[in-house]
Model the fold of this input.
Amino acid sequence: MKKIFVQEEWCLGCRLCEYYCANANLGNGDMAKTLKGKKIHPCIRVEDDGRISFAVACRHCEEPLCKKGCITGAISVVDGVVRIDQNKCVGCYTCILSCPYGAVVPSEFGVVQKCELCLQNTGGTPSCAAHCPNQAILFTDEEVPA
Done:
């Protein structure tokens, strides 16, 4: 199964992945119209400590701890993709505490969100990987990207 891999040595810290992610999840093609004047809530986020930048995204674990911690059964694994049913989520944030990678975050709607590989939005390559200007974010099934 293809997953997102981040090569932190190539990350510029530009945060374009966050904007493309937010735009893809809002379902509108025109980023300027969609995001103008709005606070974005991307499923991927860039961490930057001044020395190194890298994007944090869901790793789609084989046995996700977030799923084990979910009290409502809102988190499932479908074809290797860890997904959240927004209608079942009660916003208890147990999954946020359970994820060792910090990939599950509160959404703007009081529930949680995480990267679901843009499967519901683009049907192909996740928007963050498709638009990373330095190719620091890869969508591949290789364990160690070349």
Summary: Strands lie at 3-6, 45-48, 53-56, 75-78, 81-84, 105-106, 112-113, 137-140. The chain has five helices and eight strands. The chain has a mean pLDDT of 90.
